[in-house]
């Protein structure tokens, strides 16, 4: 009887795991068809032309303060070290490892936080729920997972943030001074890397370390360590933000440096974030409440990381979202690009569930009564979340369409044909065939058509990598079709065969 009851309690978590497999599978398979794009070639040329320190000096003074991502991490680009065939193989492997690392880091943080209170299957299920939610509304999958220059700048620091938080959970749980020192030292190194990746991560790291210091200021045992972490973060922020290259690049944006306009626009975009992203979060929040939130409130009422003022936690969440929007609108004068929004949405998801747990602990009795009165709510929430996840116009469905329509395979073949053509041809200014199809999940940016566009930066970088005077497409690439149109077209082709 007890065994049957135990198995019954595991059913929801098993369903979450099955849902996660279905959601993650197409992205893992798409890594087989991934290829270098856009900046990948330009940075490969840069890093084979200049030394490591020359690159740092030149870019820091003239282009960007991203000392970790753009000036350091890009040196893992396989185009630097390998022939194109093996470089592409490594490139595909990188995107696979990135997806796995994102999952592992999410699980690691949750395991450090929840392992005393939940079994492994429950923690895995929660990690899957968060990953599904992130993948569902990631603003650009190609820039967040498949384009190396994009994910090294914007996705890798998200992973490092999860690992840093996991280290800090370990710091709070241990009483050993030596272990505390080791945890904080590693967390500080991660923080320095996060800050040196992009401007959104600067904001996220700064507000998070400040929030931790503020909430633990009265704790004499932890205060010196957290003060050290915060000061290390501040020092890294100053190095990143005050880079002369940042201000040199801002001159390329005529709408930059308008603080009043940027403030108003950032307020608007912060509010718009809730309108755009909240619906699936509400369904996921209901699931979290039933299967993790309320059980955690009952098991761990004294869990320190959630014993904070709800008002302060909400303020931290909203201020961070606003500052992220403001940093971009002030520096560029425009709305954040999709790859930038990937970072904002990452914070939105994980920050939302942190705030939710703080609220659950505060209002546990009231919510427990609602839980007992509405046993059908989690079933409805699960169905609703599944419908959101596999919406035909969302990222998961797009990944499946790219796979099963043959777009990804056609793109992969065309890219290899392009490499073979360039290796075999003695052309100096080369006309290349357009792509036969564009898989939206993988594709970021390609060459432009026409010899007059040989100076376009993507064409220029690609030509420099192949030691050509110029390259261009002989005709335009096809337009990106929506999923419904693609499925209709694929169905017609199948019937004709």
UniProtKB/TrEMBL annotation:
Pfam family, one: DUF6056
InterPro entries: DUF6056
Chain ranges passing through the membrane: 12-33, 93-111, 117-136, 148-172, 184-213, 225-244, 264-292, 313-331, 343-361, 373-390
This protein's UniProt keywords: Membrane, Transmembrane, Transmembrane helix
Keyword Zinc-finger listed: no
Protein name (record): 4-amino-4-deoxy-L-arabinose transferase
Source organism of this protein record: Pontibacter ummariensis
């Amino acid at each position: 009887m007890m065994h049957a009851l135990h198995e019954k309690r595991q059913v929801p978590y098993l369903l979450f795991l099955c849902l996660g497999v279905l959601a993650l599978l197409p992205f893992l398979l798409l890594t087989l068809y991934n290829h270098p794009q856009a900046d990948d070639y330009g940075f490969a040329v840069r890093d084979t032309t200049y030394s490591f320190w020359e690159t740092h000096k030149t870019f820091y003074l003239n282009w960007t303060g991203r000392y970790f991502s753009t000036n350091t991490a890009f040196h893992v680009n396989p185009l630097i070290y390998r022939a194109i065939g093996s470089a592409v193989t490594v490139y595909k492997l990188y995107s696979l490892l990135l997806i796995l690392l994102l999952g592992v880091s999410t699980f690691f943080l949750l395991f450090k936080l929840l392992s005393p209170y939940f079994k492994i299957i429950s923690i895995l299920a929660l990690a899957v729920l968060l990953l599904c939610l992130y993948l569902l509304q990631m603003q650009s999958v190609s820039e967040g997972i498949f384009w190396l220059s994009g994910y090294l700048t914007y996705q890798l620091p998200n992973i490092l943030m999860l690992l840093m938080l996991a280290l800090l959970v370990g710091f709070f749980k241990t009483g050993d001074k030596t272990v505390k020192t080791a945890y904080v030292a590693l967390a500080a190194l991660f923080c320095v890397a996060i800050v040196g990746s992009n401007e959104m991560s600067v904001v996220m790291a700064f507000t998070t370390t400040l929030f931790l210091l503020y909430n633990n200021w009265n704790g004499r045992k932890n205060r010196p360590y957290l003060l050290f972490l915060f000061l290390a973060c501040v020092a890294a922020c100053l190095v990143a933000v005050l880079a002369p290259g940042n201000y040199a690049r801002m001159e390329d944006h005529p709408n930059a440096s308008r603080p009043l306009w940027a403030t108003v626009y950032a307020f608007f975009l912060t509010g718009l974030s809730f309108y755009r992203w909240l619906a699936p979060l509400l369904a996921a929040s209901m699931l979290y409440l039933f299967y993790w939130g309320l059980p955690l409130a009952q098991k761990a009422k004294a869990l320190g990381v959630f014993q904070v003022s709800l008002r302060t936690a909400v303020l931290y969440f909203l201020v961070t979202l606003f500052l992220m929007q403001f940093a971009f609108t002030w520096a560029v004068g425009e709305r954040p690009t999709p790859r930038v929004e990937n970072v904002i949405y990452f914070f939105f998801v994980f920050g939302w569930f942190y705030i939710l747990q703080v609220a659950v602990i505060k209002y546990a009795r009231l919510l427990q009564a609602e839980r007992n009165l509405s046993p059908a709510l989690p079933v409805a929430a699960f169905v609703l979340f599944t419908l959101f996840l596999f919406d035909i116009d969302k990222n998961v469905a797009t990944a499946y369409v790219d796979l099963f329509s043959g777009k990804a395979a056609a793109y992969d073949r065309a890219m290899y044909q392009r490499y073979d053509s360039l290796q075999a041809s003695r052309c100096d200014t080369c006309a290349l065939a357009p792509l036969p199809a564009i898989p939206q999940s993988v594709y970021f940016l390609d060459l432009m058509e026409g010899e007059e566009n040989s100076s376009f930066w993507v064409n220029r970088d690609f030509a420099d990598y192949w030691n050509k005077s110029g390259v261009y497409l002989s005709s335009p690439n096809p337009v990106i079709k929506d999923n419904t149109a693609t499925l209709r077209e694929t169905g017609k082709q199948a019937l004709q065969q």
